[in-house]
Amino acid sequence: MSVVVGWLDEYFWGTVVVLKVFGLALIMAVIFGLIGSAAKLSKIRIARALANAYTIVFRGTPELLVILIIYFGSAVTITGIAQSFDPDIQFVDIPPLWAGALAIALVVGAYMTETFRGAFLGVDHGQIEAARALGISNFKTFFYVRVPQMWRLALPNFGNHMLSVMKDTALISVIGLEEILFVAEMATTVTLKPFTMYLVVALIYLAITTVITLAVAGLEKYANRHLESAR
Amino acid sequence: MSFDVHLIIDSIPRMLEGLGLTLALLILSTIIGLVLAVGVLLMRISGRWFLAWPAMVYIYIFRGTPILVQIFIIYHGMPQFEFVRESILWPIFRDAFGCCVLALSLNAGAYVSEILRGGVLGVDQGLLEAGKALGLSTRQRFVYITTPIVIRLALPAYSNDFISMLKATALASTVTLMDMTGVARTIVAKTFAPYEIFIGAAIIYLVMTWFIQKAFGLFERHMSRYVKKET
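^ inputs. structure came back:
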């Protein structure tokens, strides 16, 4: 285990990168999920069709493939645009961190769309009618009436989606992001102790997922506190 | 920057050569995973702590770490040990295909056993009491009452897990296997046309998910044919 000590700071910065990707991807995924579920529940047929296409495509494509499409695809596009200005440019890409976070957010956002849709349907329709009768605008109804009631219903699935976001961050090492799996690969080439190095990665992930699980359990308790006292 | 539709059509047959490997990974690891899952489930619900605890630790570890990390630990990590290299299992650990099947099965085992446990908990106690009153033994009750109901209750979640497994097989391309994603990545490395090739691969995955969903839908209808439909 002593070989790991020399690499601890590398692992630490790798973990910071992982957490950064996790935060970015989670925020984007929630936004995609909210937009997607709003589109799925809207009366506009084109919005519904687009949202359905979105969920079908991103739930059926492997995450790794989405990451590769977004990273290499955007690299080719941006390089093409850059070369039309300056033919000497060889290769431009968007940073792997952003490409990876966007790809993960697109995939998990598709799952969140379904979760949020179900949760929105779980909110009593009388509440929305009451808001309308009080003359509250649609926008305010969405954020002050519907979202506060739906997140309680969405929480258990949301916790699982958070875990998927966390675990998908490991895939971004494939496009060269220097996160913990990448650190372990580097450490392996130097120390020739692959098992030890990858085990450290697994333990870091296990620790983070444990924290997420516990946090979600706490949030669930908090969200359902009014039901506890009623019993 | 151009988008070549012909390249998609030309590349799909070449990627279908990788389909065999993808399917082999999928089918082998789901079968082994299912057997594992049933074993772990029986340990978990046995009511004996020395059986239930190892099962819980196994599920916790494999659900809390990314599959990619598990594949790397098994493929790159295990050969670190002398006894693995000298054991009779070395042909499995030496081979990338064996490692992937092992990692995916272990992973599937953890997830599926949780799905099955949800099904077992969903079985109506009254039915089991009725079975007891009719003089069925514990084993008979499990085989003839619990099992058919669990299959019906667990199918929707299991079909989702099956699709996750299909998506997880794409990770085999990170350990040099030439599955569909692997073939796509080699073609991209030669042609540098990421959009066309990766989207072609994504289309094949989408068609496969569609088939899987249809097949599970039919099976689900067959299994719940005697359940009263809510109209």
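Chain B touches chain A through 45 residues (CB under 8 Å). The longest helix of chain B spans residues 138-168.
thumbs up if we can close this ticket
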